[in-house]
Amino acid sequence: MPVGNCDTPQHIYPINGVEIGVTAAGVRYQNRDDLVVMKITDSANTAIITTKNGFCAAPVLVLRHHFAKQQPKFLVTNTGNANAGTGEEGYKRALASCQALADKANVDIASVLPFSTGVIGEQLNDSALINGLDDALTDLDANNWLKGADGIRTTDIVPKVASEKVNIDGIDYHVTGMSKGSGMIRPNMATMLGYVATDANISKDLLHNMLVELSNQSFNRISVDGDMSTNDCCTLIATGKASDSIIDSTKHSHYQALFEAMQKVFIRLATLIVRDGEGASKFITVNVTGGKTTKECCDVAYAVAHSPLVKTAFFASDPNWGRILAAVGYAGLAELDTTKIKVCLDDVLICERGMPANSYNEEAGQEVMSRPEISINIELGRGDASDTVYTCDLSYDYVKINADYRS
């Protein structure tokens, strides 16, 4: 089961200018929703970032090509098949899916962006996808965020939705998003798809900058198993329906409060992925402070978050904290002074000056390691930079889920 609070938000605010349609097309799964279409108003600006995996999937190649030409009007997502490792044929099938939707919606093919998630190396059942488009278009509704989140799941146990509202100078701004992801998760970005929309009126250039910054605080700060997917994409849409006033600078009086609302949505969606990590039983926050640079802090945090030995120790509730020190040591920091390093598990000081803390005892370590949510707090003592990465433990179920994934 997912770790901690994975509840659906009490209020899921529809975004004026975004509609979502969902259907069971049978692309891979039977008797469950697996095709999601998002319709975006003509007035919207959209920003997208994609995986850095050199073997990226066919839909990623198509959407990059289309997005370079014009702003999207439709996003189409199938689950169960990644359409990755499928060569020219896979590209043709992704393109055919876009063409079919463009024809039905009477728009240019370049305004349709495809997204896929699921098994790698199998040709996409584009016939089923195309046959399902009419039902998805008929289902278009601004209130379908939760239904859409359920429709893009693969091994996810829970649908992932987050939503915020903020009033600034009498204007109500809404931010709502959905994501999927559970395994093959690591930074840049994760095996995840993320769609966030706001009714704010944000310029195209600023929107892209916001997406990069928001992702670097959320989707690029999570790790389940250290594997980078071929299909990762994150999309940020600003429909401009809330106000005529264009937010085109970080100095705009509405920028900071709106950014903080968006930040809450992004971090919630990202941490939901970790909480729903395949077989996860512990949610772990790795806080690194005292680095010379943010990169140093991230290098240390990722080394700890990716370590199978650290993750299995947390699964076993074993306070084998030497594994944490080992990961810090191989993170690659030049001239690391271990006598300045301090490590705490939640509020339990386990290591200071690079050796066991005088106050530490095994019983305290055992108690904190048994908690479902734990913070690893690492002080490097070499600067003022800090950063945070979210991860989970590594359990027997992770192996079972991934061993049986294609069956």
What can you tell me about this protein's structure?
- With 407 residues, the chain is α+β, with helices and mostly antiparallel strands.
- It has two domains: 18-275, L-amino peptidase D-ALA esterase/amidase; 283-403, Roll (Ubiquitin-like (UB roll)).
- The protein is 31% helix and 25% strand.
- The protein has helices at 58-67, 87-105, 126-138, 145-151, 204-216, 255-275, 294-306, 308-315, 322-329, 362-369, 396-403, and strands at 18-23, 35-40, 45-50, 74-81, 112-119, 160-168, 171-180, 193-198, 222-223, 233-238, 283-291, 342-345, 348-352, 355-356, 373-379, 385-392.
- The strands form three sheets. The chain has a seven-stranded mixed β-sheet, sandwiched between helices. It has a five-stranded mixed β-sheet with strand order 3-10-8-7-6, sandwiched between helices.
- Helix 1 packs across helix 2, helix 2 (87-105) packs parallel to helix 3 (126-138) and helix 7 (294-306) crosses helix 9 (322-329).
- The chain is globular, with a radius of gyration of 22 Å.
- The chain starts with 17 loop residues before the first strand and ends with a helix.
